[in-house]
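Appendix B, Record 12. Input sequence as logged:
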Amino acid sequence: MQIPEPTPESDQDRSLRPIALFILGAAAVVYVISIATGPSQKETDFLQTNNAAPQQVAGNRVSETSPSEARRTPEFRRGEELARTVCASCHIYTEPELLDRVTWGMEVLPDMALWLGLRLNDKDPYDELGLSPRAREAKVIPDEPAISAADWRAICLFYLESAPSLPAPQADHAKIETELPGFDVELPKFRGNPRTTLIQIDPEQRRIVLGAVGERYTGTLDIFTHEGVRERGLRMPTPPVAMTIEKTRLVTTLIGDYGPSDELNGKIVQIPRPGSTGVALMDLIPNLPRSTDASIGDFNGDGRDDILVCGYGHMLGKLAWFENLGDAGYKEHILLDQGGALAARTLDWNQDGRLDIVVMTAQQREGIHLLTNLENGEFEPRTLVEKHPAWGFASFDLADMNGDGHLDIVTANGDNGDFTTHIAPMKNYHGYRIYVNDGAFHFAEGWSFPVNGAFKILARDFDNDGDQDLAAASFYADYTNSPEEGFILFENLGDEGFKPRTFADSHIGRWLTLDADDLDGDGDIDIVLGSFGTGSETVPENIREIWRTKGPPFVILRNKTQN
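Logged structural output:
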C-alpha cells in the first residue's frame, strides 16, 4: 500500500502562525484580565462575587504597561507570592513559562478559578468543568471561594504577564534514522478506522490480544495468531486497556468511561485463555472508578492472588489492592486516595520476600511512587519522582539501564489531551527520560530525548547484546513536521548513548500503545504497535484519511536478530 507523505506546512501558514498566536495571546490577556477585574456585564464577569465592586489590576491599564514594568509592581509580586502558596497547595508550583499565554488565559486560569470556588457568572461550575454527578455529590468544588477575587486577580496578572507569547520549541535531538535493521514490518489484512486501546503479546501461545473501542464506546477483544490472522473476538461492556495473562485466564481491565469521569463504570473481569474453559466473561471487581491498570499478586502473604487496581478516575480516583477472600469475593484496601493512578508494577523492591508496588500518578501531583510492603498488606509510601501538573506522565518501565545492579525508571511524558477550547500547544519538556537509581532511593534525571506527545515506553534487549534498549511511541506526535517521532526504537550504545531509529512509513498509524515479547518463539523480542486512528486538526488531512480508511489496528515489527 502506498503511504502518503505528511503534508508539510506551507510558507504562508508558517508566516501567519505567529500573527494568529499574537492575536490569540492578546485576546487571552484581555479575556482573563477583564473577567478578573470584575466589569459590570455579567457575560464577561468571570469572578463576580456578592456584588463586589470592580477593582483594578495593575491600574486596569494592561495595554499601557510593558511586561518589564508590570513585573516591578507590588501587585505583580503579590501575585507571584500567592501563586507559590495557593497553587502549590494542591500540586507542585507551575512556572508561568511552562505554558504559553493563550493556554493560560483561555484554558488553565478560567478552570482553576472554578476549582477554587470562584463562580463563572450564573453558570454551574460542575457543568463548566464537565464533571460527573459523583463529583458533584462529593463536592469537589468548595461552596465558598477558597481565595478572594482580589488575590485571584493578582495571580492572573502574574501568569499572563510572565507567560511567553509562543510555546517554546523542542530542543534539537539526534536524527531519527528511517530504517530498522534486524526487523521486518508486517501489516495485518484487518484494516480501517482502528481504535486500539490494548496490545498484549502471549508468548507461550504465540498470540496477540487486541482490545479496542467498539460501537457506542463499548469494547471489543480480539485474538490474533503470531502471523496477524484473526482467530476470534468478544464484545466487552467497555474498552479493555490492560491485561495480565495467567495459565487459564486473561485478567482484563475495562476502563469504564473512556473520557474523564468519576462514575464507577470500570471493572476487572476474567476471560478464559484460548484453550481453557469457563464463563466467557466474569466480573471479578466491578464498580471501579475509571480503571487503567491492574496487577495480580499476593500482597498479604496468605497464599491467595490479590488484585492491585489503578482507578485513575478523574478527581475521585484511587490506588487500591483487593484482598482475595476466596468464595467471599474481594475486600478493598485503599493505598492512595486521589485521582490519577495510571500504571503500576509489582516486585520485591527491597528483597525482603514481600511484593512492593511502584505506581505512576498523572493527575494533580504527577509522579512515581514506591509503596513498600511492611507486612500483612500494609504499605509505606515514598515519592521517587514528582512533577508539575502539566508534565503529562503517560507511561513508565523499570530496568537496569546502566548495568550497576539498580533498577532505574524510564518514562514517557507527553499526554497532551487536557484542553478543550483550543488545540493544545506542543510542550518542549515532553519526551523520554531515564531516572538513574543510586541505590539509596534517589533518582536523578539522566538521559533524555525530547519528543512531542511521548506516550508509551518499554525497556527490552532487542538486539541480544546484553543491555537494555527502548521502544517508544508518541500518540501526540508532530505529524506535520516530524512524523518519524510516532515510533522510535532506541538502540543502547553504552557510553555513546542511544541511536534513534524508526521504520519507513511509520506514520501509517497513530500509536497509542505497544507491547514487546517473543511473539514467534525464535528467541528474540518482537514489537507490536497498536493504533488509535483518530487525529486532531494538527494532523495533516491525508494522514488522517489513511488512518480512517486503511490504517491497521496493529503492526508487527518482527525481530530477525536470531535468524
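The chain is about 15% helix and 35% strand.
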